[in-house]
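Need tokens for this chain, all 133 residues.
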Amino acid sequence: MAEPNLRDADSRFWDVAVRDGGKCAYCGLDGSGDIRILMSFQLDHLKPRNSGGSDDADNRVLACYVCNTEKKDWDPNEGETEQLSREKLVEKVAEYIKKRRGEHLFYTALYGKLKSKVVLESVGRRSISFQEE
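Here are the structure tokens for all 133 residues:
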């Protein structure tokens, strides 16, 4: 028998997922329409635990894997003279991630050459096709 997924029983994940509308707080990737996407999301600490951040819901956001990986343990309060609001912290992290992604020149060039287009098939399934521009 398979081990149960701890996320299934972790109400903290679902509380934050509902509060954040099923979207990545940083890039806006929407998992609310597909449970497979939503289940791949992670809880991120706005202020990392190694910087004194807590596990409270106010310090947690729903983040897609890519954004959570890019942010790592970066503290958006670093260098600030006052504690920023939750909304400002999220905005600052989103800008930080956007800047870091821009530094990955290979991916920037690849995304510039490819255009994803969702094609709805007659049976209602989705497939993704890539077209060169």
